[in-house]
Amino acid sequence: MTEPTRIPVTGENGYDVLVGRGLTGAIAEALGSGVRKVLIVHPPTLGARAESLRAALGDRFEVLLAEIPDGEAAKRVEVAAFCWQVLGQSDFTRSDAVIGFGGGSTTDLAGFVAATWLRGVKLVQVPTSVLGMVDAAVGGKTGINTAEGKNLVGSFYAPSAVIADFDHLETLPRNEILAGFAEVAKCGFIAAPEILDLIEADALRATDPTSEEFRRCVELAIAVKADVVSEDFTEAGRREILNYGHTLGHAIEHAERYQWRHGAAISIGMVFAAELARLVGRLDDAAVDRHREILGSLGLPLEYPAGRWATLLATMRRDKKARGSMLRFIVLDGIGKPTVLQGPEDQLLYAAYQEIAS
Ligand code: GLY
After folding, report:
1. Which positions ≥6 away from 107 have C-beta within 8 Å?
2. Which SS3 state, helix, strand or coil, does residue 162 take?
3. pTM here?
4. What is the atom index within ligand 1 of the atom nearest the CA of 242?
5. Atom of ligand 1 nearest to the CA of 239
6. Rounded distance, CA 232 to CA 243, Å?
7. 349 by DSSP, 3-state: which?
8. 9: left (phi > 0), else alpha (psi -120 to 50), else beta?
9. How far is the centre of ligand 1, averaged over its atoms, from the C-alpha of 233 (Å)?
10. 38-80, pLDDT tens digit by residue?
11. pLDDT tens, 277-291?
């Protein structure tokens, strides 16, 4: 076993993200000696793995499992209430802990439960998808959806550790890995061009969880996120750059009733943002082409139907990330140089959309 890589998130409530294989021991270490009871929150698809984790932790802790629905269906107040009930009936105290064991929806929900039970108990995030490892589980955003929209209820709540164990990726469908790589590529575009070089050199190797290149890409992406959230935990400023491709991407996810993978939607969103930057003279043709080549080499979509623009624009205006009445887009002044484009004219947005319309 190679040594895990330790990527620090600094700030008031700093913690490490550990990347490697065979990291079950690191979960026990992160829980620490003061914890007696642990609730592992997991989706049904990870039932057998959650049982193995329970067995591995069982000699040091009293471990309970809470099975929650797969995907977005986990992020409901009824599911949080179910977890609170398990914690309450099992007499969890403030010195006990929650483990989020699953993809982004699971770690969002588990984080919310940990943040709210007794006003906050220890949380260890164990993401089992690429998306979770490079984005959702890192940075302390936790939350649930309401009938009015996604992530409207939640908190910023730092975990004690994030354990990114590639052993969990072995059974992940290839499509999930590629969709997660949209977030990895995003980190390349906004801050870590080495990721883009690695994907361009060999997209198959870069996305093969057994390769050195994959590990390097994932570590670079985590380092970008760690750096940004260390500086701006509560998204008062720089953290907004992580929303590259997300303004249109979220509108596409909404239009597709959340049946699309997040990575597919933000892939189109990044090409749109690149076209927008080109139209305002910030990005050259070559950098825009690079977006299409890299995201295309990952098998991600680059276009969206022409007739959907009015709906997407209306959704973007409602999106919580559009502050006040002004739409805001993260665009690039060049690869690795993100900036904010505030309140672009509708005509400009429409022109950019024409470039990605199918
Ligand atoms: N997923 C973007 C963020 O954590 O800020």
Report:
1. 100, 125, 127, 132, 136, 137
2. strand
3. 0.96
4. 2
5. 5
6. 14
7. helix
8. beta
9. 10
10. 999 999 999 999 999 999 999 999 999 999 999 999 999 999 9
11. 999 999 999 999 999
